[in-house]
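During the reporting period the student researcher (J.K.) took over the structure-prediction task from the postdoctoral fellow and processed the backlog of single-chain submissions. One of the processed entries is reproduced below for the supervisory committee.
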Amino acid sequence: MNMQQFLQKVVAGQTSFDPSSDSEAALRDFQLVAALILKAEEFGYVTDVIPHQESDSGNDYYDTVVVGGITKSGRQVAG
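J.K. obtained the following structure tokens:
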């Protein structure tokens, strides 16, 4: 997923983002999505981002990221 695709999902109403499964491989893959969401907040595209890190694996993987809203500039990037 790229930035525009992520922002389009937020515009469509998706606010919670999770790995595709509870497997460690899915958690590892989700770290790129979590980083993208945190970067979107840094750029001012989304607001009120709440990341959650699991502790079971010992790797502190992000396992859920909740987005509170999208900004005007985020809507523009979403297209």
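The committee noted the following: The mean pLDDT is 96.
J.K. will present the remaining backlog at the next meeting.
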